[in-house]
Amino acid sequence: MNFSTLDFVVFAAYCLVIIGLGLWVSREKKGHKKDSKDYFLASKALPWWAIGASLIASNISAEQFIGMQGSGFAMGLAISTYEWMAAATLIIVAIFFLPIFLEKQIYTMPQFLEKRYDSRVRTSLAIFWLLLYVFVNLASVLYLGALSLETILNVKLIYGIIGLAAFALLYSLYGGLKAVAWTDVVQVVFLVAGGLATSYLALELVGDGSVLKGLSDLRKEASTHFHMIFEKGQFAIPDGSGGMEDAYNKLPGLSVLIGGMWIANIGYWGFNQYITQRALAAKNMNEARNGLVFAGFLKLLMPLLVVIPGIAMYVIVTREGGSGEFTSAMTDASKNLIKSDKAYPVLLNLLPVGLKGLSFAALTAAIVSSLASMINSIATIFTMDIYRNYFNKTASETKLVSTGRIAGVVALILSVITAPQLSTLDQAFQFIQDFSGYITPAIVAIFFMGIFWKRTTANAALVAAIVAIPLSVGFGKIEGLPFIDRMGIVFCALIFVMIIVSKFDRNKDYSKGIQLSKKWIKPGILTLILATVGVPIYHGLDLISMPVVVKVLITMVILVVLIISLLKFTVADQEEEPQEEMDGSWFELSNSFIVGSLLICGILVALYSIFW
User: Where in or outside the cell (predicted)?
Assistant: First the structure.
C-alpha cells in the first residue's frame, strides 16, 4: 500500500491521540500512588458508555477484522452468528451472572471460584486461563495483526508482531485498566468509522460505483453466502490445504441457536476475565448492565463491518474466474492457494487517500485495544490469583501493581515467540473458537453449577476441570462431529460428572453456596442448561446410522435423566438449613435495560427470519 501524506497524518494523529490519552488518564492526583483497584479495576468508576465501548474494543480485534472477514469470504453471513448471538448473550449475562460477581466484589473470575469453591479450583482455572490467553488469544491477535501489516505495507511478519506488541505496551503498561478502558472509547470511534469506510468501498466495487447495487449484486452472485443456518452437505468451504470441507462442521445447523454456541458465547462474555473485568469496574449495577446492552447494540452492527466486505471480496474473486489482480493478491505463493484471511488486507489496499489512513488506524485500534485488554487481564489474574496467594501474601499495593506490569511484559514476550507458528492456518478465527472449545465447557459448567446449586462441591468442580480436556480431545477424534456440537455434548457430560461427584463427595461444605433470593433465577439457568445440550446430542447421533425416531427418543431420554437429576438436586437444596440470601435488589432491572434488551431481541428475531 502506498500511503499518501494525508494517510500518514491520519494514522499518526490516531497514534498520538491514543498514547497521549492513555498517559493522561493514567496520571494520579498529587500524593496518591496507584493501588491495585486503580490499576486492575480502573478505580471502579467506569460509566455505561465507557464499559460498552471498551467491551467491543476488547472483543473486536484482528481475529474479527481479518479472521472473520476471511470466514465471510469462505462461508458468508453465517459466521455473523458469533456476533448476533453475542448480543443475546450479553443480556443473559447482565441478568443472571453480573449481579453475583459485583456483589462478591471480586477482581478476577478465579477469585470468585475460591469464594464459591476453594483455592484449588481457583488456582487450576487461573492457570488454564493464563495459558489460553497467552498462547492462543494474544498470539492469534499478534499474528493476524502482523499478517495485515505484511500484506498492506510489506512489513516482515516478525517485525509487525514486535511493533504491535510494543505499541500496546506503550500506553497500557503504566495506566492499567483505566488507560485501556478510556482509550477504548476513542478506539471504537476509529474502529466503526474505518470499518464502515471499508464496507462502503467494497460494496461500491461490487456495484460499479453504487452501494445499493452492490448489496443487490451480493445477494444475486453470492446467494449461497447469505444463509445463517447450514444443513449437512449444503455448502463446502476451503479447508486450507487445497481441499474442501462441509461448512456444517464449523456451524452445525440449529446448534448455533439452541446448542453449543451458547457454551462458547456464555463462556466468553460471562466468565472471561478480559471481558467481564470492564463490568467489574463499573460505578454501580445499573451502569454495568446498561454498558452490556450498549455493547449488544454494537454487536448487531459488527457484521456490516467485518463480514460484508469478506463476501464482497468473494464476489470480486469469483468474477475474475481464477486469474486477476484480486485473485493474485489473495493467493499464498508458498501453497499456490487462495488464503481466506487475506480478504481484508487486500481490500484495504484499494481505499482512497485519507481513508487508507483511517481504515488502517481502525485495524490497528482493533488490534492494540485487544492486546492491551488481554495484557491487563493476564497481569490481574497472575498478580491477584497466583502471586499474592503463593509468593507474597503480604505484598503492598505498590508491589502488586509492579508485579502486574512485569507479568504483562513476560506474557507478551511469550506470545511474540508463539505468534509466527500460526502462519499455517487458513481461517484463524475458526482455530481460536475450536481450541478455546476444549476448556470452555468446563468453565461454563463450573460456574453454572456453582451459582445454581449450593450443594455442588469443590471436588466436583476440580474433577470437571481435570476431565474436560481429555473428554474434548476424545470427542474431537470422532470424525464428522462439529466442534460446536462437541462443546454441547462435553458440557452435558460434565454436568452429570459434577452431580455424581457432589452426590458421593464426603467433603461437603455448603457454607460457600450462593443463596439466591429471586425464585426465577434457578429455572432460568436450568433453561439455559437444557438449551445447550439437546440439539448437540441429536446431531451427535447423526454419526450413528439409525432412524430419526430412535435418535429423538435417545435424545429425550438423556434430557429427561438430566432434568430429573437437576430437579432432585434442587429439592435437596430446599431441605438444607436456610442461609442468608443474597440481596434481591442486585437483580432488579431498570427500565432502560428492559427496553434495550427487548429491542435487541426484536432485531435478532427479524435478522434470523430474513436470513435463515
Answer: Membrane
Q: Give how far Cα 250 sits from Cα of 64, 78, 181, 482, 483, Å.
A: 16, 10, 33, 6, 7
- Report yes or no: 189 and 180 within 8 Å, Cβ to Cβ: no
Maximum average pLDDT range among 155-159, 334-338, 508-512: 155-159
- pLDDT category of residue 135 using cuts at 50, 70 and 90: confident
Spatial separation of the C-alpha atoms in residues 367 and 14, rounded to whole Å: 13
User: Does an H or E element contain 337, and which?
Assistant: strand 337-338
Average pLDDT over residues 389-412: 87
For residue 522, how many other CB atoms are within 10 A of its CB?
Answer: 17
How much is the mean pLDDT over the chain?
A: 82
Say what the pTM is: 0.86
| Dist CA 51 CA 40 (whole Å) | 14
111's enclosing H/E stretch is: helix 109-116
DSSP assignment letter at 507:
-
Model pLDDT for residues 229-275, shown as the tens digit of each residue: 888 877 777 766 667 777 787 788 888 888 888 988 898 898 888 78
CA-closest candidate to residue 7, choices 449, 460, 349: 349
Rounded CA-CA distance 386/480 in Å is 39
Strand partners, 340: none
Where helices occur in 272-342 by DSSP H, the ranges are 273-280, 285-306, 308-320, 325-330
CA distance 474 to 363: 38
Please, are residues 266 and 437 in contact by the beta-carbon 8 Å criterion? no
- Residue-wise pLDDT for 489-501, tens only, equals 999 999 999 999 9
Q: Determine the Cα–Cα distance for residues 312 and 454; give it in Å rounded to an integer.
A: 51
Confidence of residue 32 (pLDDT cuts 50, 70, 90): low
Torsion of CA 364, 368, 369, 372, to 10 degrees: 180
Q: Which of 438, 487, 431, 434 is nearest to 63 (CA)?
A: 431
Residues with Cβ within 8 Å of 360's Cβ and at least 6 positions away in sequence, in order, are 1, 3, 7, 11, 152, 194, 348
